TrEMBL record:
GO molecular function: 5'-3' DNA helicase activity; ATP binding; hydrolase activity
Top-level taxonomy: Eukaryota, Metazoa, Spiralia, Lophotrochozoa, Mollusca
Pfam family, one: PIF1
Gene3D superfamilies attached to this UniProt entry: P-loop containing nucleotide triphosphate hydrolases
InterPro entries in UniProt: DNA_helicase_pif1-like_DEAD (IPR010285), P-loop_NTPase (IPR027417), PIF1_helicase (IPR051055)
Name of the featured protein: ATP-dependent DNA helicase
EC number of the protein: 5.6.2.3
Obligatory cofactor(s): Mg(2+)
Domain (DNA helicase Pif1-like DEAD-box helicase): residue spans on this chain: 3-119
GO biological process terms, semicolon-separated: DNA recombination; DNA repair; telomere maintenance
Record keywords, A-Z: ATP-binding, DNA damage, DNA recombination, DNA repair, Helicase, Hydrolase, Nucleotide-binding
Family (UniProt): Belongs to the helicase family.
Length: 119
């Protein structure tokens, strides 16, 4: 399936380093676009992290995980300052620190399902 004009525009913006928020109803090609972005950025040797808010959504993508696991926020019981302190100072969060340092592009599928607390 080819990309439409709007999807091509979004892909070009992402490959040029811009932040993009793609909204749309089910079946409008958001997942297809994410897969095309991943393919394009992998060619450019970018380190991509594909995450989602639910386990069902992230199961669509190879090597994906929930944004909560990727970021170290876990189940959301800690506030932003507490999460930052834990991630920065506890040895068991070294892998999270590494993800934060080495990821060039972070994709969050279903980001509208994230609480404002996350940001």
């Amino acid at each position: 399936m080819d990309l439409n004009g709007e999807q091509i525009n979004a892909l070009n913006k992402v490959t040029n380093g811009h932040n993009v928020l793609k909204l749309g109803s089910a079946g409008t090609g958001k997942t297809h676009l994410i897969k095309q972005i991943e393919k394009s950025l992998n060619k450019n040797t970018k380190n991509i992290a594909i995450t989602a808010t639910t386990g069902i959504a992230y199961a669509i993508y190879a090597n994906a995980m929930t944004i909560h696991k990727w970021s170290g926020i876990g189940d959301g019981r800690f506030n932003t300052g507490e999460v930052k302190s834990v991630v920065l100072h506890y040895a068991e969060f070294a892998i999270v620190r590494d993800r934060l340092k080495t990821t060039d592009v972070l994709i969050i599928d279903e980001c509208s399902m994230l609480s404002m607390k996350f940001f």
